[in-house]
Amino acid sequence: MDKRKMRATSKKVEKLLSVLSGKKNILIVAHDNPDPDTLASSVGLKDLIEKELKAEVTIAFTGIIGRAENKAMIQHLAIPLKRLDELDLAQFETTMLVDSQPHTGLIGLPEEVKLDVIIDHHPLHPESRKAGYHDIQSSVGATSTIVTQYYTAHGIEMDSRTATALLYGIKSDTRDLGRETSRYDIEAYLYLYPRANLRLLARIENAEVPAEYFRIYERAIDNATTFDGVVTSFIGEIGNPDMVAEMTDLLIRLEGTRCALVGGYYSGQIFVSLRTRDSEINAGKLIQRVVGKMGTSGGHGSMSAGRIKTESMSDKEKNVVEKTIIRRLKRAMKIKGVRGKKLVE
Questions:
Q1: In CATH, what number is assigned to the domain containing residue 323?
Q2: Which has fewest Cβ within 10 Å: 17, 44, 109, 164?
Q3: Number of domains the chain is built from
Q4: Contact call for residues 6 and 153 (beta carbons, < 8 A)
């Protein structure tokens, strides 16, 4: 960071600590089905706050943690997590939301709970301005980058465990600095790399996966359809909603593909994930046009996600939803008169 950015960031940290000063019990809420970036930024903030203010900080989540790498991250880095629905929220004096924002459909926090702090790297939602402290930096590729800046600008010591978590958060959200990466992400990466435990990082990134992973992998390929640089796949019922994003990351690698969309059913909803490699396509805006009022959606740049409730739907009605998603995707991308064909015959 240049000197001007360092001073501005240091002032942000001072304001954050001022908002939290005097609070003994602080709650950090990760977004639903937490990924490495929200886990890393949460643990980074927990360590920073406990070090600077001597407060007790609890990290809570909703949904499930299903992806093998995420489970390995929690295990190897000993990240303390609590289920939000098992906590007495009245005991916390302050609530922080990390790597998400209000009204995105990605947090399981009761509406009556006031958010005092919001830190995120997705596009700004107007509701976030109501928080006592908000730091929304949509120009960076990961919330972990923002948290790393807090440490470096304010001269806060960072241990190896925190550095490893934040490094993996950045690597994961930017796909090894290859997706929506700013110079600040690169600076943070270079700061964290020599401080991280690379052996633990390797264990996390190469975590063992269950046999079910390969069954869904096969289903995603078998069900994939391509048309005009787009690949879509609906993978049916799944035991882990993270698989939707994981299969989208797989299909976007198909040669000549500019956009990939995958949908899968979990817990009475269809989870939809979208990726793009076309710089002229904003995935966040595209998913909003695809999902519309059928459900909730959000994202940015090259990646986004949405959810639609389907618990009371018949198989025929679900099929209609899938067709509607494809039709809206084609319309939003101005694709006309093109019939899809199976990826694998």
A1: 3.10.310.30
A2: 17
A3: 2
A4: yes
